[in-house]
Amino acid sequence: MLNPVTPDLLAQLRGALSGAAFRDDPAPYLTEPRGRWQGQGVVVAPGSTDEVAAAIRLCAKARVGVVPYGGGTGLVGGQIMTDGPVPLILSLERMNRVRDIYPTENVLIAEAGAILADVQRAARGIDRLFPLSLASEGSARIGGLLATNAGGVNVLRYGNARAQCLGLEVVLADGSVWHGLSRLRKDNTGYDLRDLMIGSEGTLGIITAAALKLMPQPASVSAALLAVPNPAAALDLLALGSDRLGEGISAFELIHRQGLDFMTETGLGVRAPLDPLPDWMVLIELGLSQGMSADAALEGLFGAALEAGLVSDGVIAQSEAQRQAFWHIRETIPAANRRLGAVSSHDISLPLSAVPGFIADAPAVIAGVGAFRINCFGHLGDGNLHYNVFPLPGRSRADEDDKRDAVKRAVHDLVHSLGGSVSAEHGIGRLKTGDMARYGDPVKLAMMRAVKTALDPSGILNPGAVLPAI
After folding, report:
1. Per-residue pLDDT at 469 exceeds 90
2. 3-class secondary structure, 36
């Protein structure tokens, strides 16, 4: 049984941490981006790993829950604790330094509170690339991105956050510090504790710093927005592009017309340079090495795809500004979604060959619950779709809230039946613990509980997240 933060614990924390660590107004830390939950907690923002360790030791002794907080951009409630004993919210925002850069090793050491865009900028400063990229990169922080094993638009080429990390510094549930900031590419000395911590959402330890892998900057970059007849053709286009260009494809995004229509409906004024506007589009980006032309490669791919009947129209970026404009279309889709308010949003992944069938079958499954609009888009290159269900014109999210659980169940049941995952890149948090119980393999859940019990026997780290209650 956990206890709430007490005045006595707060006094001990004030004695152990600097005055700059304390936040008088917890309100900014108690909401999440979709506005569905309101949290609770007392907020501290340690300025060093030693201060994090000191805070955890005091909470462990008092049996007080600790909710780690990064940039607050998570969409599954991992950073929000709505009920139970009042926890300590531990923000990493002050631990935001890039500690070291090793250009010859292609390694950068960043603290957990470093904002992703700042890490990308530091890499560019030495003519390198940190390829993790997603819509919230201006506010998302490295610790949270690793804790949720974030994905984004470049997973096809560079992998999830896990693939871009070499080592970690982590404060454990008893306040001890694992100094695992290894820069080694090969290290077979036992269990891979780095990968255990990545994706654990702060339930096994608090990430305080990370050794991140950097990549060469592509010498030639270009993008194209292509009209495809259907998702099956988009998948065939991906195969054709992979055959011709290998790992030169950095991103391959599937976009449905509904996303563009939503931008018009919500007054965002973003238009695609295709006329007529097709039902389905693909945004593809290439990054090629010295001596290769991304523009020429896209032109060749477009010609081959046109001949094969996989595309009917397309625009290849003629400038960096136009390439950015293509990405602005993709990145504005979530903004339009938020303005409308989804009845139920789904971050799902499927085996690539199952994607077209899912997209074809899901509307009928949802129609069994009610009448809705669907905006399907996402990272087709790695099988990750954002499949979001919206009210009809004239109705609001609140009008359909009684159907939300049924919509979610219908979508997730179909995904599970096709061998997919109900959490592709956003994590489990507190939103999807019921899904873990419904769809999770019992042996896997037992293994996860055993690890949690071993590393956090009192259950103080992010209580209620990831693992369903027994």
Report:
1. no
2. coil
Q: How far is CA 376 from each of CA 362, 380, 397, rounded to the nearest angstrom?
A: 11, 11, 18
* Closest C-alpha to 140, from 427, 461, 463, 456: 427
**Domain, as residue range, for 162:** 98-216
- Of the residues 151, 184, 216, which one is the last residue of a structural domain? 216
CATH of the domain at 349: 3.30.70.2740
* Beta-carbon-side half-sphere exposure of residue 212 (alpha carbons within 13 Å): 33
The amino acid at 118: D
Confidence of residue 233 (pLDDT cuts 50, 70, 90): very high
329 and 363 in a single domain? The answer is no
- The residues near 232 (Cβ < 8 Å, ≥ 6 apart) are 356
- Please state, as a whole number, how many other Cβ atoms lie within 10 Å of the Cβ of residue 88: 24
Query: How many domains are contained in the chain?
Result: 4
Please indicate, yes or no, if residue 291 is contained in any of the structural domains. yes
CA 156, 159, 164, 170 torsion-angle sign = positive
What pLDDT score does 333 carry?
95
Asked if residue 105 and residue 64 are part of one domain, the reply reads no
* Percentage of residues of the chain with pLDDT beyond 70: 100
Whether 1 is in a domain gets the answer no
N residues, the chain: 470
Max CA separation in the chain (angstroms): 73
pLDDT tens, position by position, 105-144: 999 999 999 999 999 999 999 999 999 999 899 999 999 9
pLDDT above 80: residue 72: yes
**Cα–Cα distance measured from residue 291 to residue 202, given in angstroms and rounded to the nearest whole number:** 44
